[in-house]
Amino acid sequence: DILVDGKVCDCDAVVTCQVGDPVPLQVKLTNWSQHSVGPFALTMMPYQDYQNGVHNYDLQDAITFVGSNTFHIDTVKPTKNSVYFGALLFLYTGDFYLNIKFHEDNCSRELPLSWLCLPSVHIRATEPVA
C-alpha cells in the first residue's frame, strides 16, 4: 500500500500538493506468503516524464526528500507488514512521478537487481494558495 499525504494512491489518480509543503509518504509492505522474506531495500526515485520516452531523474533542484529515499528491510514474517515513512518537498511546480522499487539486499541470492516495482505515483505540485 502506498499513501501520499495520508491518502491511498491509485495508479490512475493524480495526487495534488503545494510547493513548499512537505508531503508525507508511507509505503506498507505486507508479506502474504507462508515464509519470511528479506533482506531487501526499498528505494523511492522521483522523476519527470517528458512524454517522449525520456524520464528525467536529475531533480535535486526541484525535489528533496525529508529523510532518506532508501530503507533497508531485514525480514518480514508471514502475514505481517513493515511500514516506512518519509516525505517529499517540492521546490517547483510541475508533474512528477515517484518510482518505488524493492531491491535484493543480499548478494547470496539470485534474484534480479530490481525484482519488484510498484506502479508509479503521479504527483502534481502546484502554487501555494494565497
Task: Please sum up the structure shown.
By secondary structure, the chain is mostly beta strands. It has no helices and eleven strands.
Question: What can you see in these coordinates?
Answer:
This protein is 0% helix and 56% strand. The chain has one domain: Immunoglobulin-like. The model has no long low-confidence stretch (mean pLDDT 83). The chain contains no helices and eleven strands. Strands 3, 5, 6, 8, 10 and 11 form a six-stranded mixed beta sheet that branches. The protein starts with a strand and ends with a strand. The protein is mostly beta strands and 130 residues long.
Assess the beta-strand content as a share of residues.
Answer: over 45%
Number of DSSP-assigned strands: 11
Reported by name, the CATH topology is: Immunoglobulin-like
The CATH class name reads Mainly Beta
Mean pLDDT: 83
The helix fraction, in percent, is under 10%
Give the overall shape. elongated
Query: Which structural category fits the helices and strands?
Result: mainly beta
**Architecture, according to CATH?**
Sandwich
Q: Profile the largest sheet.
A: 6 strands, mixed
Q: Which quaternary structure do these chains form?
A: single chain
CA radius of gyration is 16 Å
Low-confidence stretches: none
Quote the distance from N terminus to C terminus. Answer: 33 Å
Helix-strand pattern:
EEEEEEEEEEE
User: What count of structural domains?
Assistant: 1
**Total number of helices:** 0
